[in-house]
Amino acid sequence: MSSTIAPRVRTLLLLFLAVTGALLAGAAPVSAHAALTASDPRQGAVVDEAPAQVSLTFSEGVAVSDGAVRVLDPKGKRVDTGAPADQGANTYAVKLHAGLPDGTFTVTYQVVSADSHPVSGAFTFSIGAPSTTSVALSDQTAGGGVVGGLYGFARYVSYGGFILLVGGATFVLACWPRGAGARSVQRLVVSGWLALTGATLAMLLLRGSYTGSGRVGDIFDLALLSQVLQTKTGAALVSRLLLLAAAALFVAVLFGAYDRRVRADGTGEQNATGTGATSAPGAGSTDGGTGTAAGTDSTAGTDSTNSTESQEKSDLAFGLAIGGFVVAAGLAATWAMAEHASTGLQAGIAMPVDVLHLLAVAVWLGGLSTLLVALFRAPSLDAPVVRRFSRLAFGSVAVLVATGIYQSWRQLGSWSAFTETTYGQLLLVKIGLVVVLVGIAWMSRRWTARLAQAPERRAAEAVRTPVGATSARTLKGAKPKAGSGGGDGKRAAQLARQRAAVASAAEKRLRDADPLRTGLRRSVLAEAGVAVVLLAVTTALTSTEPGRTEQEARAATAAAVTPQTGALSLDIPFDTGGRDGKGVARVELDPARVGGNEMHVYVDRPNGKAFDVPEIKVAFTLEAKDIGPLPVVPDHIATGHWTADGVQIPMAGSWTIAVTVRTSDIDQVTVDKNAQIG
Fold first, then answer.
1. Residue 523 has pLDDT above 90, yes or no
2. Strand arrangement of the beta sheet that strand 36-40 belongs to
3. The pTM of the whole model exceeds 0.70
4. Cβ contact 574:603 at 8 Å
């Protein structure tokens, strides 16, 4: 049996590692959930006089700390003073030293969004005229690097632990009470508790470095840990640990007192039917009247005992169900109160909906994992158990779909966000996986229906089988010799244990050879495999900027960077196909009219951070008048910033502005957009 299980378990483990690796390698830098929508001075602006302060406006509220916003002069020296001040309307400002010289200044910021994710970026502005700058910006984004990868892995493990803990306990209480005594089920639920507890402690330690420096050495910095404990996310993680202490007590009662009640109740039922029926004839053979009365009294006493034990078991199960629901809902709330649901539109409704969504996922996927373990490891699993879980899973999927529709509307806001934002694209993948999972679950329901009919067929076959044949073969030669001593008694006990082991092995072979059970195993195993991938995509979704926020930030940024004097600003995405080949080129032309113009070109990564490329060229073409292309080679003045003066536009019209971007010796692409000039 173990040789059959091992390859399947190894397959699931390899799938888990592969998906987790892809998740950490491809999405380790967490997408910002708050975006910079405006600044004063604005990005790339050239001001005549030095400003007294620099202000930043974000798409949602953020948490700022000392040093969260820094302003550096052309030599890389800090010129800001004091901590950032909250000016309302999601705007934060930092004061500047007086008497700043002319040149290009760099503004860097690293804050934490209201839904707990780090946000960082940088931009430049100039006083008097642009100049070269010695400021070098790090390529590592906030939430990236080794610490970001570890934090993302801990998030994945915490979700998995929550699912196993809640789903496994629900499966035992609602579908399979006798499963409380199954060692394999106990190990699964306890493993879920240990995984969730360990991951929560790891996230608490990693949090300070994750939202700050990103250095591994800062993981055990007690000062950072103290700061984390004062944040909303820190409070949520500490609350989770306290609830896990209550969950440990719940698990102890479930697999201790409740298991004993279930076994006692089952033993009582056997005594009521077996022992009572056996004792009456024995007593009656001695004294008919007395024996019958004694048998009746024994049966009545046993029934009374069984009734009391059954009532105690029901009361304990009810208490566990209420207490377990409170603890599970509290654990789910620690995510809802600190992440997407806690900010943005209808937060008061979104948080309870998110709790229901998480509970539905845990009951479905956690119950599925428990069913898989039971099918492979449990000595027996009755068809009614599988039918009960099938109904429970159906209800969970219904709740999952209803809450998922609401969350999708809230996080996307438009149909276009499905294809135009990373969040929407990941959501489409998740929807596809759920559809596949429901399809496999439908196949499992068919196997369940067949399994439910199997006991009737096996009972009919048992009637046709001679009852005494097996017993005669089993007991053959088992009688001890007359006058045998204690040694023969030990030998008889040893033979009895051997026969029991042989009978158990024969039963296991018959069970493994059952095509219905095998079919259900394969179907549930396929569900579990898809569920592993689904959990990885869900974890990535929680670390991705919602589509609604991304689109609103784009619109606000576009409005902010477009000057009121009629200057032209174009964002042109590009992809050279090589490493670091994706980004956005912003071309600004001022005053965008016939004659001389000033042109600025900014190159940003998809996450909005400026970066340099080996070569940028721009060309203007007026196809209607057969003019051009008019080439312009701008000068590089700062990270991700090129400029050119005196760009001549000979006449008004709809011009094609082509930008050639080269990111390596062989990776180059030309992208263009049309714009009205003049």
1. no
2. 36-40, 53-58, 91-96, 80-88
3. no
4. no
